[in-house]
Amino acid sequence: MNKDAVYPTNIIGAGEVGRAISVDMDQNAVYQTNSFYWDTKGNDFLGAIVLPYYGAYVSEEKCQLFGDVSGKRMLEIGCGNGQSLQYHGERKASELWGVDLSEKQIEKAKLQLKTCGLSAQLLCSPMEEECGLPLDYFDCVYSIYAIGWTTDLEGTFRRIASYLKKDGVFIFSWSHPIHKCVAAENNRLAFKKRYFDESWYSVSLDEGALTLSDRKLSTYVNALAKSGFVIEQMIEESDEDIMQSRNDNSDFAQKAKMLPVTFVIKARKL
Ligand SMILES: C[S@@+](CC[C@H](N)C(=O)[O-])C[C@H]1O[C@@H](n2cnc3c(N)ncnc32)[C@H](O)[C@@H]1O
Q: What interhelical angle do 27-40 and 103-115 show, nearest 10?
């Protein structure tokens, strides 16, 4: 991408929210910028995405990717406010663990789970780094709209594989890369950036900033394969029932009828 490029972008599940400015990737600078955002703004502006939702129009209630979690050891990567861990706690998972970059989000998760009478092990750390999580331990590792924040996709997948028992399951959702390239404009969809462009950019949002890169679908698939996973299922279509029940005519809803806005992958450790 042209280093001086500025173009409209959407950050996670919604419409265009800011203007992206191309940057060089410096891991510590990304940790600092993004943790500051999640510590101060959190989900006030972007909105939380928590189970049963994988994204705006995809729900676990319909997809049933987790199945019965009773008695299972669960780890959430980028656990945010803890509501997805709560979802599994209420379904009798035996252990709840979470990791998040933001101290504030970890505090929120602790409070949320304590209020619900659930106990959890919550660690404040970048998902990319060694943080003392047990190895070959978990039945399931999952992440709801957090994996894409990693500065090192393959390294993060390799770590996740190391936390899982053999045959353990890894489920994650993120913005579909095609959604990041296309914008609704005057009742038409227009390409705003190259699908193949994985360069890093910063976007200013509501007085804060976030830094990330948009990876191709093949980048996720190939990184999973190299990290010892086999893909069992992938979901990319919006759920008609959810769309109809919301009776939403926004540009984002119109777009979600035409192309995938979220993708979910269920993989298994070999
Ligand atoms: C969109 S939220 C998703 C979390 C949760 N599903 C929610 O909606 O509250 C993204 C979360 O990822 C965390 N995060 C961002 N970069 C991270 C990193 N490198 N390592 C661990 N967590 C990270 C943020 O602090 C934030 O809590």
A: 40
Q: Which residue has the tokens 């009478």?
A: 117
38-56 pLDDT per residue, tens = 999 887 767 789 999 999 9
C-alpha 146 – ligand 1 centre gap (Å) = 5
How many domains does one find in the chain? 1
Q: List, in order, residues 6 or more apart from 125 with CB less than 8 Å away.
A: 99, 100, 101, 131
- Residue 262 is encoded by which pair of tokens? 């979220």
Task: Among 27, 87, 102, 264, name the best residue to mutate to test ligand 1's pocket (greatest count of ligand atoms within 8 A of Cβ).
Answer: 102
pLDDT at 119: 98
Structure tokens at 6: 């500025």
CATH of the domain at 166: 3.40.50.150
Asked if residue 1 is part of any domain, the answer here is: no
Q: Name the residue range of residue 178's domain.
A: 6-269
Q: Which of 238, 229, 241, 240 is nearest to 265 (CA)?
A: 229
